[in-house]
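I have a small job for you when you get a moment. Would you make up a two-line entry for one protein for me to read? No commentary is needed, just the two lines. Write everything out right here, beneath this request.
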Amino acid sequence: MTQTAIAVDDVRKSYGDLKAVDGVSFTVAEGEFFGILGPNGAGKTTTLEIIEGLREPDAGTVHLLGTSPWPRDTALLPRIGVQLQATAFFDKLTAREQLHTFAALYGVGAGRVDEMLELVGLADKANTREDRLSGGQRQRLSIACALVHDPDIVFLDEPTAALDPQARRNLWDVLRAIQERGKTILYTTHYLDEAEILCDRVAIMDNGRILALDAPARLVRGLDAPTRVILERGSLTAADAKALPGADDVSEDEVSLTISTREAADLLSALADRRALAGLQVRTATLEDVFLDLTGREYRA
C-alpha cells in the first residue's frame, strides 16, 4: 500500500493584506513526482518553505513522513533534501569539495560524493571550482548537495529557472533519475510544458490558492479543448478550410492558416484527400490552456 509522504491541510500565510497562501491542501504519495505550478507571485515558494519547515504557517498543518516540520525537528532533517531558488556555495571549493563539505555535515562517507557527481553528470567537472561552472552545471551541483545524504523527500524550487533550453533538458534527465531511485519529489516551476512531461500530478496555483490538481493528462482531457491544425498560408483558402468536415473555426495570419476542430480524424483525412498536408502541424490542448480556462487570462511566467 502506498504511504503518504507529505500531507498539507488548509495552510495559510499572510503578509499584511497579502494572502500569500490561502487555504492550500494536498497530499503527496511516497515516490511521487508532484509539481506546484503557477506564475511568479502565485504562492509556490512560500508554500514550499512552509512545508520544508523554513516558515511558520499562520494556520493549517503540514506533516512530512508523519512528522510536523515546524518547529524544526532535527530528527526529520536528514530525511529531507532542499534545493532553494538560490544556492550559496562555499567560496573557492571545487565541485567535489563542495559535496564533501555537505556530506560531512550529515556524517556521510566520501564514496557517496562520487556517486552523486556521476548521477548529476558532473564527474568530469569534479575538480572544477564552483564559480567556473556554467549555470546548468551549478544547478546540478546544487541538486547533488541536496541529495548527498540520501533523503527520502527532495524539495526543488524552480530548479530550471534561468537555464537555456538545452540545460533545462539535461536537468530533466537528472530529475527522472532521482525519481527512479524511489525518491519523493516536490517541485515548483513556472514552466508548464516541463511539468507536463515530468510530473505524476500537478497543482496549479494562482493568488495563493490551488485552482486544479490532478495528473497533467487528466487536467488537459477534462478541458475538452479543440485540436488546432495549422497549415502553411496558401495551401488552402479560408473559405475552402471552413467547408472541410470537422472544421469548427478558421483563422488566418501572415504565415499560417489555423483550423480548430473536435473531429481531428475527419479533418486530417479531408486535408490528405486535398494533398494539403505539407508543413502541417497539429496542436492539442496543454496545461497552459487549462490555466487560461481556470483564470480567464493567459499564463505569464
Notes: The longest helix spans residues 165-180. The chain has a mean pLDDT of 91. The domain at 4-219 is CATH 3.40.50.300 (Rossmann fold).
